[in-house]
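**Protein record**
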Amino acid sequence: MPISLYLVWFLIGIGFLIAEMMVPGFILVFFAAGSWVVAITVFFFNELSLTTQVITFIVSSLVLLFSLRRYGLETFKGKSKGGIDDEFSQIGQEALVIKAIPIDGFGEIQFGGTFWRATAKVAIEQDQFVVVEGADPNNGLIMQVKPLSKNT
């Protein structure tokens, strides 16, 4: 029993969905939808040539991509904490000093589930809590911190 052409297009769409989950960019989902548009078209109009099917796939995928991607990103991305657009915003967050930070030297903090090099304008001992002031302007992988005041 030969496999139906509309089923092939449906399975191609499933492949695009799986690929989207592995390489998230919110693009391949529109190619999956384009595949399903072709699958529905082939289901109802059985005599379409392969060229017509490919053109239908390309046009429908691109139309869906350019018309719905921005709306989809706004819907699924959500808003970051504090209304800041940077999804990796650290400013004002608390962190724990893992290695003491000398004056104008480097130490290490634990923040956001990982460890970061940190610098401060004052010496901060190990096991103290600090507030992240932001990334170092010269190196975005180094955090500038200050001691956590008792009032916060």
About this structure: The chain has two domains: 5-77, 94-147.
